[in-house]
Design a protein that fits this description.
By secondary structure, the chain is mainly alpha-helical. The chain has two domains: 1-78, RNA polymerase sigma factor, region 2, helix turn helix motif (Rna Polymerase Sigma Factor, Chain: A), CATH 1.10.1740; 95-160, Winged helix-like DNA-binding domain superfamily/Winged helix DNA-binding domain (Arc Repressor Mutant, subunit A, Orthogonal Bundle). It has nine helices and no strands. The longest helix has 25 residues, at 135-159. It is globular. The protein starts with a helix and ends with a helix.
């Protein structure tokens, strides 16, 4: 795969890459870092891709692995000096709706599927192909996400 072909394939799935990274990372700076790192890794390993038709799931898998690595490192090394902690006691902004807040509380794997399905209109089959997971896994995760969302939203409404 040459540079032009790689660039063309990346441009075709650019939105998918950013949606997947956003569902894991949750902020623009980390999303950009994760996508960039994944693209570099994919470029370096491009000779391992045997079938160009599998570029989307291959690239999505590299990206999800990179996001998970970044999250693991963040957990491992996250500390704030005491002086900075006192200065950071600012309330985070409220999400626009209870649904968005509930989606934000889902595990990254579930959040990715919910975003791809309900925001971007991906079908179960498309998500399975793009993420490189079986269709039944997608269905199971979607069912789990719907249940969790329903419980979260109902609990919040009951508290009002």
């Amino acid at each position: 795969m040459d540079a032009l072909m790689f660039q063309a394939e990346v441009r075709r799935i650019e939105k998918l890459l950013y949606r997947v990274a956003w569902s894991y990372m949750g902020n623009n700076a980390d999303v950009e870092d994760a996508v960039q790192d994944a693209l570099i890794r994919a470029w370096e390993k491009r000779d391992t891709l045997r079938d160009l038709k599998q570029f989307r799931p291959w690239m999505a898998r590299i990206l999800t692995n990179r996001c998970r690595d970044m999250l693991r490192k963040r957990k491992k090394f996250s500390f704030i000096p005491l002086e900075d902690a006192a200065a950071q006691e600012v309330e985070p902004p409220e999400p626009d709706s209870p649904v968005l807040e509930a989606v934000g509380k889902l595990k990254p794997e579930l959040r990715t599927l919910v975003t791809l399905h309900y925001v971007d209109g991906y079908s179960i089959q498309e998500m399975a192909e793009d993420l490189g997971i079986p269709e039944n896994t997608v269905k199971t995760r979607m069912r789990s996400a719907r249940r969790q969302l329903g419980r979260t939203i109902l609990l919040e409404r009951g508290a009002e």
